[in-house]
Amino acid sequence: MGWLENKEFKEQIQIGEEIDEEKNVNPTEEDKKEIKVTLNVLINATKKFSEATELGRGLLGTVYKAKVNDEITVAVKRLFPRYKGKINEFVKKEIFNLKSVHDKNLIRLWDVHIGEGLQLLVYEYMEKKSLGSALFDTKSELSWKDRFDICLGIAKGLKALHRRPRGKLVHGNIKTANILLNESYEAKLSDFGLANVYSEEDQFSFVKEETSKGYLAPEYFQGSDPTTESDIYSFGVVLLEIVCGQRNKVRKSNQETKFLLDKAHSYKDEKLLKLVDKRLDGDFVDKQALNILNLAVMCTDISPSVRPNISDVLSVLTGKKSIDDIRSRSVDASHVSSKTDASTSMEKGPEIDQFPQHFVEGKNNK
Predict the structure, then answer these.
(1) Structural domain boundaries of the chain?
(2) Residue 314: other Cβ atoms inside 10 A
(3) CA distances from 154 to 25, 275, 295 (A)
(4) Where is this region: Disordered (predicted)?
């Protein structure tokens, strides 16, 4: 899901209306390609939306795989009936949000079908499904190069949202399940642009459900709106999971909750390399791994203003800046920021063991 953070931007579009290209963006031939599919074809291709073609489901609806013909396969999100009254206005915003940003690391919305009791969004299909599926499978085939390229791809997609000329877009729900991979393991961000349909009940359910997964920034639990800084926090958790090959949050058999973040925040310098996925059998680039792990720690600082922005993250990943370059800026920011009071937010929200220890203590290991 995503939020249009530029509150002054009120532009509306109609379904089928021509959308201007972004400034400073040169769309590729892939960007210009359009896929239009009739409703009957989608119904038949999903076998009348049967469980056999189901790819997954969330708060808004269920996603199905639809093989349109020998050359084209798409993903179809069928929204739940309770959104029928909101769908027309939502679709305008959804089309604008997704079609106004051209980047190869963002999922494409191909088509929309509204009517006859159905509200369908047709997206490009990603062969390798989600990063979570690829990463947490015990037989994961992700090499170090795959993982590094995925980190880079996610960062580029996030920059396309955060640095959009018409007004930055906040994703709001970055997690491994919302990062999709094609047959070449190229990463694309999905599931942004959907927040306009969420009811208050949905928002409550969202926070309750996502708390159990360990991706949400601490400010969520004080009722703050999603921001680019909260996106960076969630991205930091994903970076950590990619390098370590483990979920950030795990509930043990004795009901004790363990956080990978707590280990990362307690380690310093070379010791962080102990966290690298053992399945790689040492086949990784030390400097790249250490940079990503340090970025993960910095991105998950409990103070939003101390977290690096996405441009700084990309500069480190591409070798244009060092960790020390952006760490010094973060240290300066920490002198003028106030730490998030995680304990206050926890009194109003989930139980204390739902949070990493560095939330509870209100400090970070620098």
Answers:
(1) 11-19+29-124, 129-330
(2) 17
(3) 18, 21, 14
(4) 329-366
What's phi and psi for 135, nearest 5 deg? -85, -40
- Strands, E, within 108-264: which ranges? 109-115, 118-124, 169-170, 179-181, 187-189, 249-251, 257-259
Q: Report the distance separating Cα 338 and Cα 159, nearest Å.
A: 26
Residues of the chain with pLDDT under 50: 1-28, 31-32, 196, 335-336, 338-349, 352, 363-366
Hey, is 164 helix, strand or coil?
coil
**Residue 124 near residue 161 (C-beta atoms within 8 A):** no
User: What confidence tens digit (pLDDT) does each residue in 140-183 have?
Assistant: 889 999 999 999 999 999 999 998 877 788 888 899 999 999 99
**Predicted local distance difference test score (pLDDT) of residue 201:** 54
In whole angstroms, give the CA distance from residue 141 to residue 137.
9
Torsion of CA 22, 25, 28, 31, to 10 degrees: -30
Q: What separation in angstroms does the CA of 254 have from each of 136, 218, 257, 351, 355?
A: 22, 25, 9, 16, 17
* Contact between residue 102 and residue 161 where contact means Cβ atoms under 8 Å apart: no
Contact yes or no for 298/315 (Cβ under 8 A): no
Which SS3 state, helix, strand or coil, does residue 17 take? Answer: coil
Residue closest to 151 by CA, chosen among 113, 189, 191, 107:
189
Cβ contact 213:274 at 8 Å: no
- 118-124 and 169-170 strand pairing: unpaired
Superfamily of domain 11-19+29-124: Phosphorylase Kinase; domain 1 (3.30.200.20)
What angle (nearest 5°) sits at the alpha carbon of residue 191, between those of residues 188 and 197? Answer: 160
3-state secondary structure of 179: strand
Measured between alpha carbons, how far is 54 from 52 in angstroms, rounded to an integer?
6
**CATH, domain range 129-330:** 1.10.510.10
Q: What is the DSSP string of 93-105?
A: HHHHHHHS---TT
Number of other residues whose CB lies within 10 A of the CB of residue 238: 25
Query: What pTM did the predictor assign?
Result: 0.80
At position 362, the amino acid (one-letter code) is G
